[in-house]
Write a structure and sequence with these properties.
The complex is a heterodimer. Chain A is mainly alpha-helical. Chain A is built from 12 helices and 4 strands, in the order H-H-H-H-H-H-H-H-H-H-H-E-E-E-E-H. In chain B, strand 1 and strand 2 form a beta hairpin. Classes of the chains: A mainly alpha, B alpha/beta.
């Protein structure tokens, strides 16, 4: 018995996407690039630290560093691939003059938008799942917990969903795919670099005693990922990781242990003359009372939901103005 | 101007009705106070020059565009408040052709069957039936990309028919087609009319409309200038109609009658009297002639 597709747009998009040669080309290129990065980083990190992989502490440090670099490049690839996949979602239908025929069916606008986003994200999911064997290398070398790996990959997927929703919203708002692609890449660039610049400007012009809020950084997928892949401190920490600088940036918002030390409860600070201080990690930074990663998830969720709602609104008929398509 | 013959029709026999329909962009009226009544089961031609408001009217009927004011009813549903109801009863083919080139013909139709929430068990039969209707039965597994423009146009028509709508709105369905494809499409539209569908169609080719349409409305600058059957319009314009009778031996006689009833009575009388009638036709009254007479002096 043949079952109806849950979302006809998704089913059609997957059929069209998997039929083309581009899918396996992108997948092969993506995995090849990640494998190359893995090889280069492993060799480089081992040489930098002079570590021997037989030493459990050394191999743990190498594993952590390699994991960080892999995750970092996965984020970069998501930032490159997702805008390209989603910016054309609706605008290409307009350009091909197929959108109106789709809109006058019984599919609600939200199903069309959802189908488009899921089609793009399923491809990203394919890329992420395909890269799990590569991620398992640092996991096997050591130094990375399963929970940490899941958190890291989740943050990559959250970034993909957020950028995907933004891409589709832009695609519904602009007539031309070329313009939609440029704007989506621009907005992605803002999330990655723009938020850091805004934060930098805040800090540069903030004359108050209190440190500026890092709230704007919660929108940055790299900073959010840095916050969830801190792991535990060990004797071989200090090996190069692309997230180290971002983690240090976040830590600069917490009170350091020589002023106050962390209690057993994360986020609660106690005076130095309280219970016996332990050489623990400093308290984690918070945004609006939430741990940084949770604030980041909430803000990304809001951004994605807003973009989704905008996209649905833009293609809901009847409309007051005729839009070719 | 209101087309009285059209608006006087009883509501039960009307598949599409617009009352005082207006669409305004700033100071520009795309359509202005448009009254239409499309009889159920008719092939209704909307005739007018470029910019007359045909496409805007169709977009409003198909729940694509909302009117500035006025009332619309398609198969008893209002597109503004019950778009889903209208979409269930209406098949819409926009003026510009757009198809998914990278799907197979059957996949294309199945996609729209899914989009209209039809049960998958009925898809194979539905696709077969539609392809046979539009003359593409041999192209079931061909890629859409490989079809000629005429075939794509027929496929688009099959797509508009996927959910077996009562009303079909076809905006310039023959535009850009070669003469053979035009003839094929015309006979297809006539066949749809014979199947009991209400077809609302627009075209620039008046001779084509004359062959297809049982009813027409002539619109210009967003207003209806005349509406009804071509005979009714001609009658209203002239107050009477001239009938040409060609007899055996080549002799031609002209009779003036007031309306269709008198025309029928005349034919009955000639046959009863044993007059050897070879041809019995109404003079003039062709759409081209009507269009020129109706729009005379009113073209901007």
């Amino acid at each position: 018995m043949r079952l109806p597709p849950l979302n006809p747009v998704l089913a059609r998009e997957l059929k069209q996407r998997m039929r083309g040669r581009l899918t396996w080309l992108v997948l092969t290129a993506y995995l090849g690039l990640l494998a190359l990065i893995l090889r280069v980083v492993m060799a480089g990190v081992a040489r930098f630290s002079g570590a021997e992989l037989g030493n459990p502490f050394a191999s743990a440090a190498v594993g952590r560093s390699v994991f960080g670099w892999l995750l970092f490049f996965m984020l970069i690839l998501v930032c490159f691939i997702v805008p390209g996949l989603t910016a054309a979602a609706i605008s290409s239908e307009r350009e091909r003059r197929t959108l109106t025929s789709l809109q006058v069916t019984l599919l609600p606008a939200r199903s069309i938008v959802l189908g488009k986003i899921l089609a793009s994200l399923s491809f990203v999911l394919l890329l992420v799942v395909a890269s799990v064997p590569l991620l398992s290398v640092p996991f096997l070398v050591g130094g990375v917990s399963l929970g940490e790996m899941v958190r890291g990959v989740t943050m990559v997927l959250v970034a993909a969903v957020t950028i995907g929703c933004i891409g589709v919203a832009v695609s519904t708002s602009l007539r031309r795919t070329q313009a939609a692609t440029v704007v989506t890449y621009g907005l992605t660039l803002f999330l990655v670099l723009g938020t850091l610049m805004v934060y930098g400007a805040q800090r540069a012009f903030d004359r108050s005693e209190r440190m500026s809020s890092p709230a704007v950084l919660a929108l940055n997928p790299f900073v959010a990922t840095a916050d969830v892949v801190r792991g535990r401190q060990g004797p071989f920490d200090g090996l190069p990781s692309p997230f180290s600088a971002l983690q240090a940036l976040l830590d600069s918002h917490t009170v350091q242990p020589d002023v106050a030390v962390a209690s057993d409860q994360p986020g609660q600070l106690v005076a130095p003359d309280g219970p016996a201080p332990e050489p623990e990690a400093p308290a984690r930074v918070k945004v609006a009372g939430l741990p940084f990663w949770a604030a980041s998830l909430a803000m990304s969720g809001l951004l994605a939901a807003g973009a989704f709602a905008l996209a649905v609104r833009r293609i809901t008929l009847p409309t007051t103005r005729e839009r070719a398509g | 101007m209101t087309a009285t013959a059209a608006t006087d029709a009883p509501p039960a026999d009307v598949a599409v009705r617009t009352v005082g329909l207006t669409k305004r962009y700033g100071d520009l009226y795309a359509i202005h106070d448009l009254d239409l009544a499309v009889p159920a089961g008719s092939v209704f031609g909307l005739i007018g020059p470029n910019g007359a408001g045909k496409t805007t009217t169709f977009a409003i009927l198909a729940s694509v565009l909302s009117p500035t004011s006025g009332r619309v009813e398609v198969a008893g549903c209002d597109p503004a408040s019950d778009a889903a109801g209208v979409r269930r009863h209406l098949g819409y083919m926009p003026d510009v052709l757009g198809v998914y080139d990278d799907l197979r013909v059957d996949e294309y139709l199945e996609f729209f069957a899914a989009a209209y929430r039809l049960a998958p068990s009925g898809w194979p039969g539905l696709v077969d039936g539609l392809l046979e209707l539009v003359g593409l039965e041999g192209k079931r597994e061909a890629m859409v990309d490989s079809l000629s423009r005429g075939m794509k146009q027929r496929l688009a028509l099959a797509r508009a028919l996927v959910h077996d709508p009562e009303v079909l709105v076809l905006d310039e369905p023959a535009s850009g087609l070669d003469p053979r494809a035009r003839v094929e499409l015309r006979s297809l539209v006539t066949e749809l009319g014979a199947m009991g569908k209400t077809v609302v169609v627009s075209s620039h080719i008046l001779s084509e409309m004359e062959e297809m349409c049982t009813h027409v409305a002539i619109i210009e600058a967003g207003r209806v200038l005349a509406s009804g059957t071509p005979g009714e319009i001609g009658e209203r314009l002239a107050g009477s109609r001239t009938v040409v009778v060609r007899l055996a031996g080549g002799e031609e006689r002209r009779f003036t009658v007031a309306d269709e009833t008198e025309q029928q009575a005349l034919l009955g009388r000639l046959v009863a009297e044993g007059v050897p009638v070879l041809e019995f036709r109404q003079e003039g009254g062709g759409l081209e002639d009507l269009f020129l007479r109706v729009t005379e002096g009113k073209v901007q």
